Amino acid sequence: MALKFGADVSTAQTDYGTVLLDERAGQYWELNPTATLVVSTLMAGGDEADAVAALADEFDVDLAQATRDVEALVRELRTSGLAA
Prior knowledge:
The chain is an alpha+beta fold. 48% of the residues lie in helices and 20% in strands. It has 3 helices and 3 strands, in the order βββααα. The chain has a 3-stranded antiparallel sheet. β1 (9-14) and β2 (17-22) form a beta hairpin. The longest helix is centred in the C-terminal third of the chain and has 17 residues, at 63-79. The N and C termini lie close together (10 Å). The relative contact order is 0.20.
C-alpha cells in the first residue's frame, strides 16, 4: 500500500536522510537513509513488497530482515499519525 503523509507533516531531505516535522505536535522525526529509501518507494506509489526489494538491493539486507524493518517503519509512521 502506498504511503502518504498528512497535510500537517513537512519533509526535508538532508545529507543524512529525511527530517519530518509534525506541525500539530511540534515534533521532529529523523529518518536514516534506509528509512528514507522505504518512504520514498512507498510515496512513489510502490507497495511494501517494492520497499522490501529496494531495501534489500540497496543495503545488502536479507529479505526477512528487510520485511521486518519495512513493516515496523510503516506501523510506526501510521501509529504516530504522521502517515496514512
